[in-house]
Amino acid sequence: MVERKLYTSKLLRTSHLSERTKHFEFTVSDMDRFDFAAGQFISMVAPNSENKQITRAYSVASGPRGNPLFDLCLNRVEGGFFSNFLCDLQVGAEVKFHGPHGLFVLRKPLRDCIFIATGTGVAPMRSFVEWLFWDKANPRHEGREIYLVYGTRYIEDMYYQEEFERTASEFPNFHYTMTLSRPPEIWKGEKGYVQDKVRDLLLKRPADQRANLDAYICGLNDMVSANRDMLKNEFGWDKKQIIFERYD
């Protein structure tokens, strides 16, 4: 087996997205730039209490910036070694990793797209949105219609809400839908599951344009399967149009 080259990342800052979810900003030591494709993941490596090397994969939650920086977004999992290891890191701490890896990347040529995510599955979607829209000197969205349908159970678990809303307000071809499956009474936004919102979105397009898109889906298996089945069976999509990554 070929040994993977390990790099060293240093934690620059963290912030809480919710009680159990954190946003991390790292820099890659001894690199002028860390190159990856939006949507890819890295594998963090660290020894546990028994000095056994543990590896966990995390989607990069930022777009390529031409510098050595990258972001992560993850939940603290009770009893989980790596999530607690990262969530307890202090600024300045270093972590080994290898990568980038993965084929969950934007297809070329870029077409109209639907990004579909739940929970921390929004991480690669944030990477896509940053890559496509946030570099105002070099926009890459090519005027395509880009839809982000993002769902969580509870209002406190809506991650990066302000960033996505701001992008939607600045770019008329970026459409953001946030839906809650267990909303509080005060919630005035969309309610229900992401696949229902995707269906509504497609039905608003002219009939001859409902299959003329690509879908990028990231989240737990049940959600991924529900959306894949709907797109193939209800709308006649080819499986090559449906790019997905499961978190379980």
Structure description:
- The protein is α/β, with parallel strands linked by helices and 248 residues long.
- It has 2 domains: 95 residues, Elongation Factor Tu (Ef-tu), domain 3 (Beta Barrel); 134 residues, Rossmann fold (3-Layer(aba) Sandwich).
- The protein is 21% helix and 32% strand.
- The chain contains 5 helices and 12 strands.
- The strands form 2 sheets. A 6-stranded antiparallel sheet has the order 4-3-6-1-2-5, covered by helices on one side.
- A hairpin with a 4-residue loop joins strand 1 and strand 2.
- The protein is globular.
- The relative contact order is 0.15.
Question: What would you say about this model in short?
Answer:
This protein is an alpha/beta fold. It has helices spanning 81-87, 122-134, 161-170, 194-203, 221-233, and strands at residues 7-16, 21-28, 41-47, 53-59, 69-75, 94-101, 113-118, 146-152, 174-180, 190-191, 214-219, 242-246. The strands form two sheets. Strands 4-3-6-1-2-5 form a six-stranded antiparallel sheet, covered by helices on one side. A six-stranded parallel sheet has the order 10-9-8-7-11-12, with helices on both faces.
Radius of gyration: 18 Å
Main beta-sheet annotation: 6 strands, antiparallel
Q: How many β-strands, per DSSP? A: 12
The main sheet orders its strands as 4-3-6-1-2-5
CATH architecture annotation of the largest domain: 3-Layer(aba) Sandwich
Which stretches are poorly predicted, pLDDT < 50 over at least 5 residues? Answer: none
Helix segment tally: 5
Question: What spatial form do the alpha-carbon principal axes imply?
Answer: globular
- CATH homologous superfamily annotation of the largest domain: Nucleotide-binding domain of ferredoxin-NADP reductase (FNR) module
One letter per element, helices H and strands E, the order comes to EEEEEHEEHEHEEHEHE
Would you tell me the structural class of the helices and strands?
alpha/beta
> Can you tell me the CATH class of the largest domain?
Alpha Beta
CATH topology of the largest domain: Rossmann fold
| Portion in helices | 10-25%
Distance between the termini: 26 Å
Strand content: 25-35%
Q: What is the count of distinct domains?
A: 2
Mean pLDDT reading: 95
